[in-house]
Amino acid sequence: MTDVLFDVRNALTVGNYHQAIADGSAARAMSTKAADVNAFNVEKNAVVALGQIGLGQGDAVVSQLRSESHPLLVTVRTWAELTCAMRDYGAFSDQAAAATQQLQSEAETVSADAIYKALYAAAALLYQQDVIGALTLAKKWLGVLPKPDGAVATRYTAELHGIAAEALLRLNRPDEAAKEVKRMEHVDGEAIVSMLYSGIVALHQGAADVHVANYNNAVSSFKEVQLRCGQSVMVSNLLALAQMGLKEYDAAERSLLDALAVRSNDEATLANLAAVNAHRSNSLDAAERYIQQASAMHGAWGEAYQTKQRSLEEAIADFMGAA
Question: Where does the record locate the signal sequence feature (predicted)?
Answer without folding.
Answer: none
